[in-house]
UniProtKB/TrEMBL annotation:
PANTHER family (alphabetical): DUF4139 DOMAIN-CONTAINING PROTEIN (PTHR31005:SF8)
Ranges of residues in domain DUF4139: 2-104
One matching Pfam family: DUF4139
Cross-referenced InterPro entries: CHP02231, DUF4139
Organism of provenance: Mucilaginibacter gotjawali
Transmembrane segments: none
Protein name in UniProt: DUF4139 domain-containing protein
Signal peptide: none
Length: 111
């Protein structure tokens, strides 16, 4: 097996749609990822693309999933799996967007 150079996947943070805000005693961080998949083969391929949204183990930290391209994340792991057929020389874009809200006195890394 190994990697296939004719299937190209990029994951880019959309800076203009991602933001960090402070409201009262809370901070809110929104992350908006664009996943771009290209099939450079001369035949269609069945693809499975996986990603993950944050899952909070702390009751003072809330995660709100806003966009997943129609796929529901696993509640325990945050894992998201997209299955689709990508035609020859075709391209598909999937948006993944989530908001993390936490107390401003806490240090939280949101990726």
């Amino acid at each position: 097996m190994g990697t296939d150079k004719n299937i190209v996947v990029t994951r880019t943070l959309e800076k203009d749609l991602s933001e960090k805000q402070t409201f009262g005693s809370n901070k809110k961080e929104t992350k908006n990822w664009l996943i771009d998949i290209k099939n450079r083969k001369n035949q269609p391929v069945n693809l499975i693309v996986e990603d993950q949204v944050p899952v909070s183990q702390n009751s003072s930290i809330d995660v709100e999933v806003q966009e997943t391209g129609g796929v529901k994340p696993d509640a325990l792991t945050g894992r998201i799996v997209w299955n689709f057929l990508l035609n020859s020389q075709d391209e598909k874009k999937v948006q993944l967007k989530y908001l993390v809200k936490y107390p401003k006195n806490q240090s939280v890394i949101v990726e």
